[in-house]
Amino acid sequence: MYENIIGQDEVCRTLATAIRCESLPPALLFSGPPASGKLTTALETARLLSCREAGAWNCPCPDCAMHRRLGHPDLLLFGPRSLPEEIGVAKEFLLRTPCQASAYFFLRALGKLVARFNPALWTSEESKLGKAAALVESINEAADRIDPAKIGLRLDPEILKAAESAHSDALALELLVPESPVFMLRNMRIWAQLAPTGRRRTVIIENADRMQDSARNAMLKILEEPPDTVRFILLTSRRASMLATVLSRARLYSFSPRDEKTSALILQRVLKTDERAESLKAFYESRLPFSPAQARSRAEKLVGRILVDAGWERERLAAYGQSLFDLAVEEALDSAGILDEVSQQTKGFGSRDKAMAGSFIRFLRALTVVFSDLLQESSGNKLLLTLIDRCSALIRDAAIQQGSYNRNPEFLARLLVVSFAEQAENLQNSDTGSLSPGDRDSQREGGRP
Q1: The domain 9-286 is classified under which CATH number: 3.30.360.10, 3.40.50.300, 3.30.450.280, 2.20.25.10?
Q2: If you count Cβ atoms within 10 Å of the first and of the last residue's Cβ in the chain, which end, N or C, has fewer?
């Protein structure tokens, strides 16, 4: 049991004992940092709960075969994705090392994405699927053409074409993955009441802490009277954000961070590479054409530039705010120029290249982190607190506009920067009160070049 999980021996031993003794509780909470193996362990737990034989990873029983391809009818997986870049890494692995292992890895990576669009989750809400339905069908058709048993030292042209097609469609589908809307929880509750086709059903909710209040309340109702034939596994990287009432109904399993040595071992055994990385998450992110680190760098310069151009005083900012101010002063571009640079780098935030499809969300997350770091040191600066609150609301709205209404990300980014600048200038003007425009200009340090 759990022989394919590396670096989480204690958690796996505890889970294996509970499964053997049939003492696994109705709800489990897997808590730990990203890329610590929570989802892989949850999927393996689901397989073991369905297995009719000894439980080994290569078990020949029909239930295990379906679970290995993430196609078992007793499995439901949804929630925001933690490692959306996994499919790109899997495709790279398949092209670099064509073999059964890399083919299975690629197919499982696709399966984790497609599972979010299981018809059972969308009952009576099919109209919301929109173009996702066509993308899912296209990915499934491409996956069907990738037979691990036929993978040789060189990829057959048809398999290569199928892999490229599936990857391209997956990039577009990633943008359509819903958070965890309440209708999914309600449909999941109906699904959970049905008899399993095998021994037991399993529901896995990734990033369960990010559910909206209505969805959390629906989840709580399910956990209050869980069906005996179902096990619920909630995954989170932020346990403190979970409802206390949900925590009280779930048995906690803590996943420890994987150190550099363990990460190297996983890269070597699973992805067949000797490349080194400080963590698996860092390895995955290094494969992105617009990495979180790049997004953070541009976000910091953009926020700093907006503060400078709005006439904020450097001395009224704490250490991190002053560092943003200094970055902006050194930057030769104004805020519009910084955004133009990011837009060129990301091909219009993915509007002109599917490979960059996730860049807008990464840029929004980077802006959120910048404002969050500012927030930690701004308790005595009411003006900055107001700006952070307003800009954070604008970021959330931009994410909704892009995710729910499919608005053009490049347009949203430009509108966001204009709105940031307006908020910063309005607040600065209100703070300077009766100062004349000339006096306010004299307060600026490092204005627009």
Answers
A1: 3.40.50.300
A2: C
